[in-house]
Design brief:
By secondary structure, the chain is α/β, with parallel strands linked by helices. The protein has 4 domains: 135 residues, Alpha-D-Glucose-1,6-Bisphosphate, subunit A, domain 3 (Alpha-D-Glucose-1,6-Bisphosphate, Chain A, domain 3), CATH 3.40.120.10; 87 residues, Alpha-D-Glucose-1,6-Bisphosphate, subunit A, domain 3 (Alpha-D-Glucose-1,6-Bisphosphate, Chain A, domain 3); 107 residues, 3-Layer(aba) Sandwich (Alpha-D-Glucose-1,6-Bisphosphate, Chain A, domain 3); 82 residues, TATA-Binding Protein, CATH 3.30.310.50. The chain is 35% helix and 23% strand. The chain contains 14 helices and 22 strands. Strands 1-5-4-2-3-6 form a 6-stranded mixed beta sheet, sandwiched between helices. It has a 6-stranded antiparallel beta sheet with strand order 18-19-20-21-17-22, with helices on one face. A hairpin with an 8-residue loop joins strand 4 and strand 5. It is globular and about 65 Å long. It starts with 9 loop residues before the first strand and ends with a strand. 51% of the residues are buried.
Length: 448
Amino acid sequence: MAGIFRAYDIRGRYPDELDEATAKRIGNAFVRLLAAEQVVVGRDMRPSSASLARAFVEGAVGAGAEVADIGMVSTPLLNYAIAAGGFDGGAMVTASHLPGEMNGFKLARENAIPLSGDRDLPLLETRVGEEPAARAGGSCRRIDMLEPYIGKVAGFLRAPKPLKIVVDAGNGMVGPEVPRLFERVPAWRLVPMYLEPDGRFPHHHANPLDPETTRDLQDRVVAEGADFGVAFDGDGDRCGFIDERGERVREDLVTALIAEFLLLEVAGATILYDLRSSRAVVETIEKAGGRAVRSRVGHAFIKALMREENALFAGELSGHYYYRDMGFTDNGLLTLVYIANILAASGRTLSELIRPLDRYPSTGEINLRVSDTAAVLAVLAARYRDADLDHLDGLTAGYSDWWFNIRPSQTEPVVRLNLEAERKELLDEKAQEVLAVIRTADPAAREV
């Protein structure tokens, strides 16, 4: 089990790092940790997910829990089921956007509050190592939550107008949900791509952050004359957008666009943004009368801070978008609805709406493999000691006309660098400078 308990969830290579025996122990320990009486379990389409889900259920039933099996679903649907069904907790068997040989668990307690890496997951790991409980009274039943979930998402529609939308589900779990949503919106025309769930990912891996995965979608948007395109990750809690010209839209600018729209409905609301986001995001929130709160990266941390701040909305550079009205959880399908709402209300194209927000050149996320993360961060902090420095998540160094953040990934053995400047020339200069400092600190550092 070494290494499979991460900051946000549980992930490992199947079956070498995560197998059915481990899944059964996790299910048993999960019930004991939460003292849960009723839990709900869902899974994605990976070849190993069905057997891992069965093993988890067996462990949970053995600990005396009543388990509701909702079958093959998206993570947002699982989160909805936890809260709507009044369960003590829930488990989603998925490795999200990672390759098909990987798998894992996203775990939550009541109201879809995720188990945190700073406390809950270490406690769970300890319980997994203990003797499993054997209690009577456990059971398992099958339930279907798809239709009420789609009804919930559709309830956020605002005066829909005719739109042609290309949807690339990446053979992931949003695929079955998309036609059900479009059936409820006669004004929309769906152009489907890769809606059939298939954990072998026959067309491309389901990671909309990777530009290689959206090339087919970009071409299709242009060929169809569509209003926009959207790509989802494997378990449906992340998405990325393509404008009507076939151009990718930066995920942090989507945060700004949705925040601006929501602040028209809820004046003065609190909006969270992750610390890698463009300065244009906080500027947009504040100009619209909102209260902008900066957050560290990661769904468990953002969801906890949203609850503390009672935030209306939050967005991450990774394409996670979170909604208070959806129980402070992230939801890709609902984000599609909001982009459609914005286009309908404005009468403008997506590129026209994004253009004024896209005012600062950015490197995007640069992934680097380094041998000593702490040493690299220390050297950077010393080199840029005259900056506005903070360590909320890794190291952020801010100047009046440029800034960077570098942080260790919680899901991969890399550090991630984001840098933004007011001018392209300054961006190029400072990116080269920061990368040179990193390579001085660690000559073996390389981009991956």
